[in-house]
């Protein structure tokens, strides 16, 4: 699964003419494997042992390249540092108010909401964003079901 996703991501980079450096390879791999919506800083910390010459700025620049070709999404939820999400199928996020952890969940696209919004306002609707906030099992001391 991870390997297929990584291979597809690398192929689409090749198609868009983006050079695949060992760092880019490692960053993509980390994004796909971790599924934790890491910040540039998290990625830097995870990979600095492997790439001693890499800086946080390099990580960030690479993430920007991935974002421009549509491989990753930059998530901004009002806190200081953006988190990055490898783009797979459309999904929603539930966010812990206590520790900031973001977890994916899947739900059928809320297309009716878009249609309704468009109908009521006359807007041509492009997309929507939905976030659920709460307290994660680690923070509330409860086990996930
Ligand atoms: Zn939490
Ligand atoms: Zn996500």
TrEMBL record:
Q: What Gene3D superfamilies would the database entry show?
A: 3.30.1490.190, Winged helix-like DNA-binding domain superfamily/Winged helix DNA-binding domain
Give the record's keywords alphabetically. Answer: DNA-binding, Repressor, Transcription, Transcription regulation, Zinc
> Record's InterPro entries?
FUR, Fur_C, WH-like_DNA-bd_sf, WH_DNA-bd_sf
A Pfam match: FUR
Per its UniProt record, what CDD domains does this chain match? Fur_like (cd07153)
What does the similarity note say? Belongs to the Fur family.
Name the PANTHER family for this protein. PEROXIDE-RESPONSIVE REPRESSOR PERR, ZINC UPTAKE REGULATION PROTEIN
Name of the protein in question? Peroxide-responsive transcriptional repressor PerR
Species of the source? Mesobacillus maritimus
């Amino acid at each position: 699964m991870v390997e297929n996703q990584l291979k597809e991501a690398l192929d689409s980079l090749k198609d868009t003419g983006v050079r695949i450096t060992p760092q880019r390879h490692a960053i993509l791999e980390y994004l796909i494997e971790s599924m934790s919506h890491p910040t540039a800083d998290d990625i830097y910390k995870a990979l600095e042992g492997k790439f001693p010459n890499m800086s946080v700025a390099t990580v960030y620049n690479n993430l920007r390249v991935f974002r421009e070709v549509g491989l990753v999404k930059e998530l901004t939820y009002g806190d200081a540092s953006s988190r990055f999400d490898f783009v797979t199928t459309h999904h929603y996020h539930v966010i812990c108010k206590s520790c900031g952890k973001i977890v994916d969940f899947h739900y059928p696209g809320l297309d009716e909401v878009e249609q309704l919004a468009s109908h009521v306002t006359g807007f041509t609707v492009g997309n929507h964003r939905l976030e659920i906030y709460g307290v994660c099992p680690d923070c509330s001391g409860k086990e996930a079901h």
